[in-house]
Design brief:
The structure is a single chain. The protein has two domains: 40-91 and 100-228, Penicillin-binding protein 2a (Domain 2) (Alpha-Beta Complex); 232-619, DD-peptidase/beta-lactamase superfamily (Beta-lactamase, 3-Layer(aba) Sandwich). It has 23 helices and 20 strands. Strands 2, 3, 4, 5, 10 and 16 form a six-stranded mixed beta sheet that branches. It has a five-stranded antiparallel beta sheet with strand order 12-11-20-19-18. α10 runs antiparallel to α20. Residues 46-209 form the Penicillin-binding protein dimerisation domain. InterPro entries: Beta-lactam/transpept (IPR050515), Beta-lactam/transpept-like (IPR012338), PBP_dimer (IPR005311), PBP_dimer_sf (IPR036138), PCN-bd_Tpept (IPR001460), Penicillin-binding_protein_2 (IPR017790). It comes from Flavobacterium rivulicola. Keywords: Carboxypeptidase, Cell inner membrane, Cell membrane, Cell shape, Cell wall biogenesis/degradation, Hydrolase, Membrane, Peptidoglycan synthesis, Protease, Transmembrane, Transmembrane helix.
Length: 644
């Protein structure tokens, strides 16, 4: 038995190998298509990308035809290089560089030689294409923007690089891919599926028809259309209000978490990143280290939140039972929390929760914060309890929204202070600046907008998202999952009453809009930077958060204006205008609108520009106002409200 076992195994294995080889070489032709086969030319049919609409069905992004010149390096023969370069308006050095790059990718497979020809260039090349062996035209579509705003939301499309090709076998050299914004987030949905045709060639390298009668050919599938949650008119208006200013605006529908507007300033016309000049324009925007038009401040900028953070300080204190609505503290224009340590305040007198909110009393909230931390036997325990409450509002973490970029902000815990103060006993007094949003807490505008949306909902939120509908598809279920905070619902009502009187009696009393009950909170955040290695204080940031109406709110919004002085000077008016625009679809506060549209903070920003030549070049690329910008002081009266 042993004598026949080994020969039998060898015989069976041999038969299996021969059978498999016969199948692969004679019956199965698919391997021929996966190799650099001289007799088969692969031609791709690129589908149109899906169209992008706003929440109401307004078309935002469509497609336009484009033509790429493709090259198969091994087929390039008897080429009149001078004529070829003259026709395409390129130098011989550029020609050689492009051919060399194509050869590196593959001598036998097609790759893009020159992308995005316009119709005139395409027609001129097509007339004499027969003279240029190895070159052919590949038709595809590029984006055609129907609007001149929303660049940070849309993103752009660009050619794939080698690392993308290595990671994702769907893409080949010269293919286009979405970058930034929804183009990146929803790339697989928007791109569709490209078709493939295999063309048989004879020994003279002439096309003789489809390989195997088209058995392996596939048809291109157009990308799916999507509707964004964006309100196009509100987005456009927000970008207009932010001309000659830097910062961000995020507006959310509280009941759904849908993003109504996502403004970053400065911005740019998305159309400049389409066509032959795309690379040049992108490079210009990318290297602007001053205005940073490619930097989405609404998602990426981490700011000290300032006085809007007092909302959370009060809610946590109510939940922890260290105060109630009647708990009072006396303010003498500030709060002395340690020998030689004094927190200034513009308020004075007796403060309870209600007037503490609408007057933005630092003394009240510093006292409340210390009572919260001191409730526990040790400060580290108290800080962690406080921090966990804040996490339930989505702070200190990536929020899970459907845009490809973002920062998680910073939310201190006991570990934070153990690192900051090693071997030293810290207490609530050491970190009391957290109470008024001036401590170690950092928040992005979208986090702050989500926070005020959560307050508007009386204690819950939905993950902010930009997708509303996918044609013949479904949005992720996580966007319809309710997140409930650790704060009981009953504690939100007294806080909201105080926020309502911010507009009626407090720091935003001159910003109200007739017919709309707005609840809001002003904020001023200190702003420091390093210049030549030294820490320098710059003009404070202007911050405002609000929601409206008070009952059954339709919009929650956060506005940051960098170097904008105090909250009611820039961020407050912009907030009121955005709310009125969304709810009424028109503006009655023409005084505020004129001041915001014509007002400029450019003089403030120019104080610290070290390269005015670069700034001049960049200003040609980014959006400029429709009307001439007025100087910062033009038409601006000093607010009689407290500067907070």
């Amino acid at each position: 038995m042993r004598k026949v076992l080994l020969p039998t195994i060898i015989f069976v294995v041999t038969i299996l190998l021969v059978t498999r080889l016969f199948y692969l070489q004679v019956i199965d032709d698919s391997l021929k298509l996966k190799s650099d086969n001289n007799a088969i030319k692969i031609k791709y049919d690129y589908p149109e990308r899906g169209y992008i609409y706003d929440r109401y069905g307004k078309l935002l992004v469509a497609n336009q035809p484009s033509y790429d010149i493709m090259v198969i390096p091994k087929d390039v023969k008897d080429l009149d290089t001078t004529e070829f370069c003259t026709l395409l308006n390129i130098t011989k050095e550029e020609f050689l560089k492009k051919i060399a790059k194509a050869k590196v990718y593959s001598p036998r497979l097609p790759s893009v030689f020159l992308a995005q020809l316009n119709k005139k260039e395409y027609a001129a090349f097509q007339e004499i294409q027969r003279k240029f062996n190895g070159f052919y035209i590949q038709k595809r579509s590029l984006r055609d923007y129907q609007v001149a705003f929303g660049a940070n939301v849309f993103g752009f499309i660009t050619q794939v690089n080698e690392s993308i090709i290595e990671k994702n076998k769907y893409y080949n050299s010269g293919d286009l891919i979405g970058k930034q914004g929804v183009e990146e987030s929803y790339e697989e949905i928007l791109r569709g599926i490209k078709g493939v045709k295999y063309i048989q060639k004879d020994k003279y390298n002439r096309d003789i028809g489809s390989y195997k009668e088209g058995r392996f050919d596939t048809i291109a599938v157009q990308g799916k259309d999507i509707n964004l949650t964006l309100d196009a008119e509100l987005q456009k208006y927000g970008e207009e209000l932010m001309i000659n200013k830097r910062g961000g605006i995020v507006a959310i529908e509280p009941s759904t978490g849908e993003i109504l507007a996502l403004v970053t300033a400065p911005s740019y016309d998305p159309a400049i990143l389409v066509g032959r000049q795309r690379s040049k324009n992108y490079t210009m925007l990318y290297h602007d280290s001053i205005a940073k038009p490619l930097y989405d401040r609404g998602l990426l900028a981490e700011y000290t939140p300032g006085s809007p953070f007092k909302i959370l300080t009060g809610l946590v204190a109510l939940q922890e039972g260290v105060i109630d609505e009647t708990t009072s503290f006396v303010c003498h224009h500030g709060f002395s929390y340690a020998p030689g340590r004094f927190m200034r305040c513009h308020d004075s007198g007796v403060s309870v929760l209600h007037n503490g909110i609408y007057n933005s009393c630092n003394t009240y909230f510093a006292s409340v914060y210390m009572k919260t931390i001191n409730k526990y036997p040790k400060a580290p325990i108290g800080v962690d309890v406080w921090s966990n409450h804040l996490k339930s509002f989505g702070l200190g973490q990536f929020m899970g929204y459907d845009l490809p970029t973002g920062k998680k902000g910073s939310l201190p815990t006991s570990k934070t202070y153990k690192r900051m103060y090693p071997g030293w006993g810290w207490s609530s007094k050491t970190i009391v600046s957290n109470a008024i949003g001036q401590g170690e807490v950092l928040m992005t505008p979208i986090q702050l907008a989500n926070m005020i949306a959560t307050v508007a909902n009386r204690g819950f939120y939905y993950t902010p998202h930009i997708i509303k509908k996918i044609k013949n598809g479904q949005i992720d279920k996580k966007f319809t999952t309710k997140h409930v905070t650790t704060i009981d619902k009953k504690y939100f009502e007294p806080m909201i009453n105080g926020l309502f009187d911010v507009y009626n009696l407090g720091t935003a009393h001159g910003l109200n809009v007739e017919g709309i009950d707005i609840c809001g909170k002003t904020g001023t955040a200190e702003n420091y930077t390093k210049i030549n290695g030294k820490r320098v204080k710059l003009q404070d940031h202007s911050i405002f958060v609000a929601f409206a109406p008070k009952d059954n709110p339709k919009i929650a919004i956060a506005v940051f204006v960098e170097n904008g002085y105090w909250g009611s000077r820039w961020a407050g008016p912009i907030t009121s205008l955005m709310i009125e625009k969304y709810i009424k679809r028109k503006i009655t506060r023409k005084d505020l609108e004129k001041r915001m549209l014509e007002g400029s903070l450019q003089a403030e920003y120019n104080k610290y520009i070290t390269n005015p030549i670069q700034d001049t070049l960049i200003n040609k690329m980014i959006k400029t106002p429709v009307k001439p910008a007025a100087k910062d002081t033009n038409g601006i009266k000093k607010s009689t409200a407290p500067q907070n």
